[in-house]
């Protein structure tokens, strides 16, 4: 289980880097949204790996998605 979480975090990191390069293309807003979701998924994976008690992954995603997506949208402009 832990190996799968590490794998997901690493592939999410690479996917986020790839999407950040897409931010310079015409699909800035869409790429920023996907990059924000990948970053939130990586954060969830890290918290699960560290065995941090999380009330619900969806609650945490709702708390984290807005600031992360705002940051990616600002970097896209």
From TrEMBL:
The chain crosses the membrane at residues 6-24, 31-50. Keywords: Membrane, Transmembrane, Transmembrane helix. This is Uncharacterized protein. It comes from Paenibacillus phyllosphaerae.
